[in-house]
Structure formats: C-alpha cells, structure tokens
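Q: Structure tokens for this one, please.
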Amino acid sequence: MVSDLPSSAIRIVRIDRPERRNAVDSATAERLFREFTAFDHDPEAKVAILTGDEAAFCAGADLTDLPRLRESGPMGPTRLELSKPVLAAIEGWCVAGGVELAAWADVRIAGAGARFGCLERRWGVPLIDGGTVRLPRIVGLGRAMDLMLTGRGFDATEAERIGFVQRVVPEGTALDAAIEVAEQIASSPWPAVVHDRLSAYESYGLSLADALANEDRHGRAVIFDPGFADGVAQFQADQARRRAEGRR
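A: Here is the predicted structure, written as tokens:
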C-alpha cells in the first residue's frame, strides 16, 4: 500500500457504494459528473483516478434506481470530453456500465482478480454510456462484438491480452499502481502531455492528411510554449551527465 497521499496534482474519485458493488444510481451519477467537471477546471489537478473498492470497481447502473438519461451520460461523466487524463483503477467486478466507465478512462489498471463483462446483455439493457463507441476503438471491432453480443465474462488476463486493460498488477494493488502512473504522468512537462493526448483523440474521423495537420498544430503549440526551452535544456543537461558517467 502507498504510505503517503498523492500530490495535489492527482485527484482520486471513488464511486463509493460498496453495499451495491458500486452500482451507480442517480445521486452517484450526479456526483461523479460534478467531481470530474471540477477536476477538469482545477488548475492544480492534472490526472484523475476513478476507482471503486477491493470487491468491485463498478457493477453498472443500479437497476433499482436507474440513473436518469442526461447529456453527461447515465453513469455520470461518460459523455464528458475532459482536457486532462483519467486512469481507472479496477479491482473485483467491472461489469455492465462499469465496463463503459472504465472504457471512458484513458488508461485502465486492473488487479489480477478483476472480472469483466457486458452483462447487461442478459437483461436486454443497451450500452448507452459510450460502450458501443469506445470498446471497438480500444479492442477492435471483432473483439468488441464478441464481448457486447454474447455478454460473456472475462478475466484480467484476457482483458490485458485484448488490450482493454493496459496493466495487470497483484490483486489489491490497482489503486497504488494507478497513483504511481498518475504521478509519472503529472511530473512530465505538461503542455506535451495535454496536446499529444488531444491529438490522438481528435484524429478519429479525420483523414490521414487532416490528422497529421492537426498533430502539427498541436505540436507547434507545445514547441512555442514558453516552457519548451526548459525541457530542451533539461534534456541536454541529462545527456551531458550521462556522457560524463560513460553511459548513453
């Protein structure tokens, strides 16, 4: 377990309904929407981590109190387009709308015991929190169709193999690992992080020529940022130090 709280640059958002395996009801959806909106507008916050608890990341929408349809997405933030990265730290059950919440994140880190599945297929509930859009982009159309149409469950090993999860860590350590990754991201020169992320997302739907032109626009914004020279100077200093130590 991490011994210290993460820096102010890292925002941890918990679903926090353990008695319902972190299923999202109307009040929770509203809270998640507000917390991620606040994160996006906080100049000190750089990376957010969405998590549940050790038993469940999220079991989907609470069918006893279905979240109301709204522009932000029934599960809360899933139709928000944030300007900063979000990581998902997943333990236990990540099913139905929980899969869609995880897919909304930029990077997914799972404990070895995590379980996944579009289980809403069994009850005739559609994927309406971006799952039909994001799953094919993350794992490919064929694999997404297999998961969505069958509703079968799959484990963390398969989730990593098909690319849905980027890292699998020992059970119970997903949040610790996510904090480490978040700190690494937050410590990088920030304009390049923001612009490279946006360029990747904005490339969808663009022709290759337009996507490359958009990448160039983002790249110029970084290169002409006042802090860019500091990063170059740090690189040169690191190279000089490595040469002096006889390393490459």
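A few notes: The chain is about 45% helix and 15% strand. The longest strand covers residues 10-14.
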